[in-house]
Write a structure and sequence with these properties.
Length: 421
């Protein structure tokens, strides 16, 4: 361990700091739309399901880019791909508060931002993995991933405070998006640094730059990716609708809509930030007891929380907030387990295509599930609507546990976690 620590040279630590800060700055507006939904919905005359469609356009951009753009990164220098993804992400976020005026324009701009997000994030993970190969790679990647997760959750807090300070969702959104400009500048510096280091080692002379469909015939991978897709669907239902549930609860207690939205966004940011620790602890647990068992236990806990939280819109706020913190922790805690599992299950030559399929399936499910929950809320109003919407989320967790149990029974599962499945 001491030798590994000594191998972390100061330039590498500085480089990791730069790439992590670049990501967190670019992701700061990630939750700005979610925090603003109560205000934007009234301004644009949207239903709950339409509000969810605008949110899900971001995840649709991630899903499409996973299939179309990520395989191309085997054929171009990763530094250039990182810069291009970061630029696309930041431009999409900057234009949203300036140009989005209805569902269609909002969806288009969020789609662009989502496509840039997945490219910047996945390419960043690959760059960190290459830079720290054999030198505490897992720790370095965990720092980058943890910082990225922090950026998406802290944006709730910043947006909540800015909504109160500006009384305008456009001004608040634009202020968070402006933070991405120095993130783009850092990505440009990283790109130049990578090109000065010499020819990129990740370029593949044999890669076609397109997705290999053979991963779709690998049953253990399909089960692992099904569990990941259900996890992602559950996570994004929570991320979209938990702040809305808190805002609805606050309005019922006499708060004004804008004030309720700001407070709900701030509380949600802190709740989801607890998931940063959850991701790390979940990964550690899977190393100790196995991937499927750890993910199954976490999935069961998050499912139980889903079945409970939707019926608490009229409960005392301290109780709802306390459960919200538990919910934020458990819905994120299994996030890293699936990414690790597919690298252990996939044939070495198909890891890139496997990651692309995993991302595409996950973000497609994540895009559709909040819309379904929105339809439930449109048709079943009041307390019953909230209860049924989050109970639907609980059913996703049940399906996820079943997928993990099936995977655990397969011989290939012994390839995970040194045989601990």
């Amino acid at each position: 361990m001491e030798a590994a620590r000594k191998s972390w040279r100061r330039p590498d630590i500085l480089w990791l700091s730069f790439i992590s800060v670049s990501l967190v700055l670019a992701l700061l507006p990630f939750s700005s739309y979610i925090a603003s939904i109560p205000v934007i919905r009234a301004e644009w005359g949207m239903s709950n399901s339409q509000s969810a469609v605008v949110f899900s356009a971001y995840l649709a951009g991630q899903a499409v880019a996973s299939v179309v753009l990520l395989p191309v990164t085997d054929r171009i220098p990763l530094g250039r791909a990182l810069f291009a993804g970061t630029l696309l992400l930041v431009v999409g976020n900057l234009l949203f508060p300036m140009l989005a005026r209805d569902v269609l324009s909002g969806c288009a701009l969020r789609f662009v931002a989502g496509a840039g997000h997945i490219v910047a994030y996945v390419v960043g993970v690959r760059l960190v993995s290459l830079r720290f190969a054999g030198r505490m790679r897992g720790t370095a990647v965990a720092v980058f991933v943890g910082v990225g997760y922090g950026g998406t959750t802290l944006s709730y807090v910043f947006m909540g405070q800015l909504l109160e300070a500006t009384d305008s969702w456009q001004a608040a959104y634009l202020l968070t998006a402006l933070a991405g400009i120095p993130g783009v500048a850092l990505a440009a510096l990283l790109m130049l640094g990578e090109e000065r280091r010499g020819p990129p080692s990740q370029l593949s002379a044999t890669s076609s730059g397109i997705l290999s469909p053979s991963v779709l015939r690998h049953r253990p991978l399909l089960l692992a990716n099904a569990a990941y897709a259900l996890h992602t669907a559950e996570l994004y239902i929570a991320r979209v609708w938990l702040p809305m549930l808190l805002a609805a609860a606050l309005v019922r207690q006499g708060r004004q809509p804008l004030e309720a939205a700001a407070l709900a966004a701030t509380w949600s940011g802190f709740m989801f930030a607890s998931g940063i620790a959850g991701v790390i602890l979940g990964g550690m647990l899977s190393d100790r007891i196995g991937r499927t068992l750890a993910a199954g236990v976490i999935f069961a806990a998050s499912g139980a929380a889903s079945f409970a939280v939707g019926w608490m819109v009229d409960a005392p706020m301290p109780a709802t907030i306390a459960l919200g913190f538990v919910y934020g922790f458990v819905t994120a805690a299994d996030s890293a387990i699936y990414s690790t599992a597919v690298t252990e299950l996939a044939p070495r030559e198909l890891i890139g295509s496997t990651q692309a399929v995993q991302s595409a399936l996950g973000f497609t499910a994540g895009a559709l599930a909040p819309v379904v929950a929105g339809f439930v809320l449109d048709f079943a109003h009041g307390s019953v609507g909230w209860g049924l919407a989050f109970s639907f989320n609980g059913m996703l967790a049940v399906a996820g546990v079943l997928s993990l149990l099936l995977l655990r029974r397969m011989p290939d599962a012994l390839g995970m976690a040194d045989g601990r499945r």
